[in-house]
């Protein structure tokens, strides 16, 4: 069935042909004046065809521009010319189809955007050729403290080592990298894939902080080792200590030996065995505490109360050593969720370590600081102006059994780290020789 527009065009073409034919026939018959009569009909038909063609071309051009710029808001319902009604109907159908496709793509994009914003893994997508960043999710912004990133060059200015590693990163096994973010050093797991679309090549990089996971794995391994060691030591040494005590008692109850020197040697040997056995048992009992920390009883704690409690508990020791303890708390109402007993134990251990570190300094000062970072994140720090540590010492301070003190047990910082892991937090230490040390607790 022919459309109205087709019938109108056909009628105009036939009218134009008939008028021109009639004019030519009359002119050929010698009726020159009469041959002009069909010309208005021909002009009207030609004008109609021209205007219809121009109008259709204009509408097509506007429709093509709307498609090019993805503008599907125009409604094609009342055409200015009746002959465009069918064309407008087709435009309306095409525009509606494009709107549906665009709406579906926008929905998919929103779903993808929300999913990428919810995951804890940082996501970065950029063009290696130009460095233009196509996508950067909130997790990566928070991890690297990036307000915004339009080009990978911005990352190179902030973290040149990380940007160089990303440039060299190839699809395949992930790579572990370390990057300094402010005062902290993060251990990151980097993985990449490359894809191409519309003639452009993109690199998609996943960045995940693995420091906490590695700390938990390391702490779990140390706990298992300590359980085995303490169990074996206690099972082996306890009978020796008991036997040494029995021998000591029997030797004291026995009559005097003819050889006084022999009796003295026996008493000294048995006493040495007993003393060392008791020392090993105490050693095992002390380190067993690393694997027997109870689950934290979380409650909302005002930070100023924690600082004040630690200050009051250690005030005699601080006065004895002539050490000043300063508290820096910009927000007096700051609170955090933690176990009061365990957190006080951590702060006491850190302050006592700082007291030892500032010994001999002309003006020893220890500073307790609390600060709120991004929403839900709070940091407590203990800083001193002591002698500081060398880099090789810093790497081992959280390892059980390691100590730089003459009479130290090597359990204090290991215990602090274990308590922070139970709080789903972390502990970091920065130090420099002749400058001092800062230990930061991140919640």
**CATH architecture classification of the largest domain:** 2-Layer Sandwich
Question: Mind telling me the C-alpha Rg?
Answer: 42 Å
- N-C termini distance: 76 Å
- Unreliable runs: none
- Domain module tally: 4
- The CATH class assignment of the largest domain is Alpha Beta
Query: What fold name goes in the CATH topology slot of the largest domain?
Result: Heat Shock Protein 90
Strand order of the largest sheet: 2-1-5-4-3
- The SSE order reads HHHEEHHHEEEHHEHEEHEEHHEE
Q: What do we call the CATH homologous superfamily of the largest domain? A: Histidine kinase-like ATPase, C-terminal domain
Explain what this protein looks like in three dimensions.
The structure is a single chain. The chain has 443 residues and is α+β, with helices and mostly antiparallel strands. Helices cover 53% and strands 19% of the residues. The strands form 3 sheets. A 5-stranded antiparallel beta sheet has the order 2-1-5-4-3. The chain is built from 12 helices and 12 strands. Helix 5 crosses helix 6 and helix 10 packs antiparallel against helix 12. A hairpin with a 5-residue loop joins strand 9 and strand 10. The model has no long low-confidence stretch (mean pLDDT 78). It starts with a helix and ends with a strand. The chain has 4 domains: 107 residues, no CATH class; 91 residues, PAS domain (Beta-Lactamase, 2-Layer Sandwich); 78 residues; 144 residues, Histidine kinase-like ATPase, C-terminal domain (Heat Shock Protein 90, 2-Layer Sandwich), CATH 3.30.565.10.
